[in-house]
Amino acid sequence: QQQVKQSPQSLIVQKGGISIINCAYENTAFDYFPWYQQFPGKGPALLIAIRPDVSEKKEGRFTISFNKSAKQFSLHIMDSQPGDSATYFCAASMLGDYKLSFGAGTTVTVRA
Amino acid sequence: ETGVTQTPRHLVMGMTNKKSLKCEQHLGHNAMYWYKQSAKKPLELMFVYNFKEQTENNSVPSRFSPECPNSSHLFLHLHTLQPEDSALYLCASSQQEGDYGYTFGSGTRLTVV
Questions:
Q1: Whose CA is closest to B33, among B97, B101, B92?
Q2: Is the alpha carbon torsion for A40, A42, A43, A47 positive or negative?
Q3: Are A104 and B41 in contact (CB < 8 Å)?
Q4: What is the rounded CA–CA span in Å between residue A93 and residue B29?
Q5: B79 CA to chain A: closest CA distance, Å?
Q6: In a mutagenesis test of the B interface, which of A33, A51, A94, A99 is the best target, namely the one with the most B β-carbons within 10 Å?
Q7: Secondary structure of residue B59 in the 3-state scheme
Q8: A47-76, pLDDT tens digit by residue?
Q9: A2 and B CB contact within 8 Å
Q10: Residue B54 contacts by C-beta under 8 Å, 6 or more apart in sequence?
């Protein structure tokens, strides 16, 4: 049973556009929500993460929005660039449990 | 390199072969993981080691045998694999406490023929 549901499975965006990936979870004990970026032939790399005490976190062109009441969080990629083309995974873990539960991944293609 | 090194990067093996995948980290992390990544499927957790002790075996067939001799090294021993075992095998490590971010290796691309 997948604890974190991610959508869409893939998306195509024009250069300069906004990419939005959504994730939903059921376990209210989750307290850490990272996003990973994976390029072909590489392992996933931590991109940005958020804890539920804040509703938004921004790092450069990447923003996580967090809605605790809806148990949803999303990744926004502003001014998308061809170099952002990759697969993105959301994940979640809970205090005292270091294991991450991953979403299924979203393949983002940025067209020049 | 990300701090987690996996070897070999690519491996082709026959169904009757025995081979091993190696993972090494010098980040001072306590926990190490094996994941299987197949095309168009979610990351599948296979094994978890915490302070060298196996804490999780996610119903993995016995043809996959993990070994963790110390906190820095993790192996995955393979024998009599099936073609459907062809995938990218990822190793990751993390701290048990504090931020729970994983550091992944680049993976071993395994092809079973």
A1: B92
A2: negative
A3: yes
A4: 17
A5: 24
A6: A99
A7: coil
A8: 999 998 999 999 999 999 999 999 999 999
A9: yes
A10: B47, B48, B66, B68
